[in-house]
Automatic annotation (TrEMBL):
Gene Ontology, cellular component aspect: cytosol
EC identifiers of the protein: 6.1.1.2
Binding site for L-tryptophan: D137
Name of the molecule in the record: Tryptophan--tRNA ligase
Keywords annotated in UniProt: Aminoacyl-tRNA synthetase, ATP-binding, Cytoplasm, Ligase, Nucleotide-binding, Protein biosynthesis
Cellular location(s): Cytoplasm
Amino acid sequence: MTRVFSGIKPTGHLTLGNYLGAMRQWAAVDQHRADALFCIVDLHALTVDHDPARVRRLSRQGASLLLAAGLDPRLCTVFVQSHVDEHARLSYLLECVATDGEMRRMIQYKEKAVRERERGGSVRLSLLTYPVLMAADILAYGADEVPVGDDQAQHVELARDLAVRFNQRYGHTFVVPRATLPQVAARVMNLQEPTSKMGKSDDSGPGIVYLLDEPDVVRKKVMRAVTDSGREVVYDRQSRPGLANLLEILAACTGGDPSELSGAYDSYGALKKDTAEAVIEVLRPLQARHAELCADPGYLEGVLREGAERARAMARPTVDAAYRAIGLLPAL
Ligand code: ATP
Ligand code: MG
């Protein structure tokens, strides 16, 4: 059976981008057709300036939102990265296979390093090595597929390269994974800056739709979205990024096609109104389920405890094999 792994960082409140680009496929498709693991990758949240209590809170909330979005612990494994030591163990071995040049070429490292410096902070070493830990997350489970948004494709590519290199040098140990991207909304853009990705750790509040935003807040944010000059509603990512983003969000929420949908509108106002309502409808059941889960914290704890046990049992044999293959003496 195909093995699938993916994760989400507790660096901020989850966004519509996280949902449309990743979580929705996990719930609707991946957990049904594959042996799937979904993880709150909390170690990754420590790569930038963080508040410990906030990371803990966001980890719990993120896990609850994964369940609220439809992940079913009877069908897939939901767990927290730091509960399974194998991630950190394997990451070190992969650091001995990756090069510093490879790390410095990662687009996300460059972008986030600039942002940390602009905020007056220094760049943590773990931000540079983050893609290696992510490769360990994937390779520890022998994942064949990694369903992610477009922004993570480069990191999955690195995981592939490291798997191939390790296997060539030390003997076949890892499955070589590949990224799978959604057809629509693989990169939801910020509503206020439609040339930048909507990211949960970005500062620009009004450009980001959070999964727990009330309907009125969603309406306001979508109605105020920056659109392009010109009047006609056409789908063109290059010249009309603001409009294209709205059309993609609408298409992803209603199951339509962005360019076909563009023909159905003769004003930006009407498009925004329908997009806002479509987003609100998608978020409604998720928010209701999240509220139920908040009322029963013991349930979530149980899911995470069991998830970590299952994940440990899956990762340990592969990581132990990697320890032996690379030349470490087995512990007695
Ligand atoms: P951060 O700003 O901290 O990097 P993020 O919003 O990018 O947060 P991640 O935890 O890095 O979220 O990514 C979780 C998943 O959501 C990944 O599969 C990623 O590709 C996907 N994703 C994130 N943002 C978007 C987006 N704007 N559009 C589509 N997919 C996205
Ligand atoms: Mg990200």
